[in-house]
Specification:
Layout lengths: L9 H11 L9 H14 L3 E3 L5 E5 L11 E6 L21 E4 L2 E4 L6 H15 L8 E6 L7 H4 L10 E4 L7 E6 L1 E10 L3 E2 L4 E9 L4 E2 L11 H16 L2 E7 L5 E2 L3 E8 L3 H19 L7 E7 L4 E2 L2 H13 L3 E5 L7 E13 L2 E10 L2 H16 L4 E4 L13 H14 L4 E5 L4 H8 L4 E4 L4 E2 L7 E3 H16 L6
Parallel strand pairs: 3-6, 3-7, 7-23, 8-22
Antiparallel strand pairs: 1-2, 2-6, 4-5, 5-25, 9-20, 9-21, 10-17, 11-15, 11-16, 12-14, 13-15, 13-19, 18-19, 19-20, 24-25
Helix pairs in contact: 1-3, 5-6, 5-7
């Protein structure tokens, strides 16, 4: 067995080695689930899989801890499968090869799977290690987290008996995650009839580029430029004052990404070109003055292109662009329970317009489900007012933070005793399994923590070895501190 498996805590590293030896891409978790079931059978632990293919293993309380509240330990067993170019690794068949690099462990040109394999390995430790002290446990191994929280979404309600959930999927030690955002998308579709382009017109293609982009949840607080909002802002006076008509718009690539670029083609009277170019230069200067400190590479330019036969009518151009200008975007509300954390936001993610059809995609997030949907209603009303058809995508629930819950206070007290300081209380403005799980089991008192993992989802993924030992010791101490049943 790899020498890494002998590092302390052996309870984690031996089991993580087993996970590295067992291919476990998202949707292909059968082999690892069978491994876990065989481990449970060898110890006589009861287990079941639910209809969502999630595995639950029951661990009896140790003597003296029978009266403690039942705790669910939870991690997902699937991993992201990314390899560097030139790698011949086959994630369906090949084991992950771990490499020690100082205080860090990484993999050989592939993702390591420490996300969330270290958490899963810690849970396996309660099946392999003797002498651990804890009350009754349920080990909840979820599937297909990386592809869209699918296992958690399909978890059967009513089958687990625990009261406290410890999620082991946070990637910075000394932190407790106590809340996350849920999300829901919407697509507004606007049909129009293109009209002929008259004589005396010219066509210009506008390229708005150089924005940073970013994650539409985590990075929304930074005030980054949104290419869709900026393009619509420029087009509004061009349509109103210069007679511009929209031909095409192509902007944004993904609903969970802040759009970095927007490309729009317009037609306008040839005698308005000079004014158009002047307005473009003035707009570029305005935007650079407003957000140049955070978006130093912002640029907008226009060039002549072939004159199309048809374009959106002047009325429809104004109507549609005004809706994009008026659509909500960015931070909508900050948390009232955790300082400095976004509660509710929306991202105007994608605009596609051509040949009689325009589609606008927005993605809303909130740790409060009603606030998420209230913001989707705002966006819906804006586009319904111009006659667009709006369809909502399936939503996933958020996890409303309670930084003063019994389990959070317990984890804080244990942290102070072990490390001499309070943990950082964190709420993430992105989707986590806890949000979905908590909707299935509203009575659960939940918290998430874990060791330090860097660059997850990439071949540079690595886990900090000393933090894994501290994480294990913290978990064991927390389980000994679990309160008695009411």
């Amino acid at each position: 067995m790899n020498e890494i498996s002998k590092i302390a805590p052996v309870a984690i590293w031996e089991n993580f080695q087993k996970l590295c030896d067992t291919p476990r891409p998202s949707t292909k978790e059968e082999a690892v689930l069978q491994l876990l079931e065989k481990m449970a059978d060898a110890k006589g632990f009861a287990h079941f899989r639910d209809s969502g293919s999630n595995l639950v293993i029951s661990i009896p309380a140790k003597p003296g801890f029978e009266n403690r509240k039942m705790v669910i330990l939870q991690a997902h067993v699937d991993m992201v499968t990314q390899a560097n170019s030139g790698s011949t690794h086959n994630f369906d068949t090949d084991p992950i090869r771990m490499i020690m690099d100082g205080e860090w462990i990484t993999a050989d040109n592939t993702t390591l799977g420490a996300d969330n394999g270290i958490g899963a390995a810690a849970m396996m430790g309660f099946m392999t290690e003797e002498g651990l002290e804890h009350g009754p446990l349920e080990l909840l191994f979820t599937v297909d987290e990386e592809r869209g929280l699918t296992g958690a979404m399909n978890l059967e309600p009513g089958r687990l008996k625990g009261e406290i959930l410890l999620n082991l999927d946070t990637e910075d030690e000394y932190e407790l995650c106590v809340g996350c955002a849920g999300g829901g998308d919407l697509v507004a579709s606007f049909a129009y009839t293109p009209e002929a382009v008259e004589g005396g017109q010219v066509a210009r293609e506008i390229a708005l580029t150089g924005l940073k982009g970013g994650h539409s949840g985590i990075d929304i607080i930074l005030g980054l430029g949104n290419a869709n909002k900026l393009m619509a802002r420029f087009l509004r006076p061009a349509i109103r004052d210069l007679g511009a008509r929209i031909v095409t718009i192509n902007a944004g690539t993904a609903r969970n990404a802040i759009p970095r670029e927007s490309f729009a083609t317009v037609v306008l009277p040839s005698d308005k070109v000079s004014a158009f170019d002047g307005a473009l230069s003035a707009f570029a200067a305005e935007v650079k003055d407003e957000i140049g400190a955070i978006e130093p590479n912002f640029a907008i330019a226009a060039k002549d292109v072939a004159l199309p036969a048809k374009a959106m009518s002047a009325a429809d151009s104004k109507r549609f662009n005004n809706a994009v200008v008026g659509a909500p975007n960015g931070v909508h509300a900050m948390s009232t329970s955790v300082e400095g954390v976004v509660e509710t936001s929306i991202n105007l993610a994608i605009v596609k317009l051509a040949d009689g059809k325009a589609d606008v995609t927005l993605s809303a997030r909130s740790s409060i489900n009603s606030a998420r949907d209230a913001l989707r209603e705002v966006a819906t009303s804006v586009f319904e007012n111009i006659g667009a058809t709006v369809k909502w995508g399936d939503a996933y629930p958020g996890w409303k933070p309670n930084a003063d819950s019994e389990v959070v206070n317990m984890m804080k007290a244990v942290h102070r005793d072990m490390f001499g300081k309070d943990p950082e209380i964190r709420v993430i403005h992105a989707g986590l399994e806890c949000g979905v799980l908590g909707a299935k089991y509203p009575h659960w008192d939940m918290v998430s923590f874990g060791p330090t993992i860097k660059r997850a989802h990439s071949p540079d993924e690595c886990v900090h070895v000393p933090s894994v030992l501290r994480f294990w010791d913290y978990l064991l101490a927390a389980l000994k501190a679990v309160p008695v049943k009411n």
